[in-house]
Amino acid sequence: MKPKSIAFPSVSDLMTEAPMTIGAGLSLADAHERMYLNNIHHLVVVDSSRIVGTLSTRQIFLLSSLSFLDPKQIPVGAAMTSPYLCTPTTLLIEVARTMELKHYECAIAVDGAHAVGIVTTTDILRALRELLLGAAVKPEVSATHIPDLPETREKVKHHTRAGDFLASSANGRALGGAVNLPTN
Prior knowledge:
Elements: H1 11-14, E1 16-17, E2 21-23, H2 28-38, E3 42-47, E4 50-56, H3 57-64, H4 76-79, E5 85-86, H5 92-102, E6 106-111, E7 114-120, H6 121-133
Parallel strand pairs: 2-3, 5-6
Antiparallel strand pairs: 1-7, 3-4, 6-7
């Protein structure tokens, strides 16, 4: 697959589609298992089908390093950060600037009320490599979850807690939910 040449790329040109989600009531241990098994570093946190935050492996490792905390007892909602929301058509230069300014690790692309993609600092660094080389480059690391081909990986069983009533897709991933977009 040859990447298209783009003068002003947008989020949709780099985003990973159908980002994995996790309920705010699940534990950090559950989140870590989901990330590890799918070779990803960010999850979209949802509560009652609304996007409420993001969680990264850095946050999990930081909290897990504190000996007096048990990752099985800490809910994802207590460790998440506020989400940075954009649309798939948002220009990548705008997203990169906002991520730099606010120290965000990722941006969640939403279409209406659903998370349709995620762009991380790794994705932006890959775009920089392409710019500097003047040619398309392959990702050095890829997530192992493939939204289009769920039969290519084993279904991951996750623990469900009271209050975590999210619609699930056929391959066990929670679907992106409603989101409160800022109004101007």
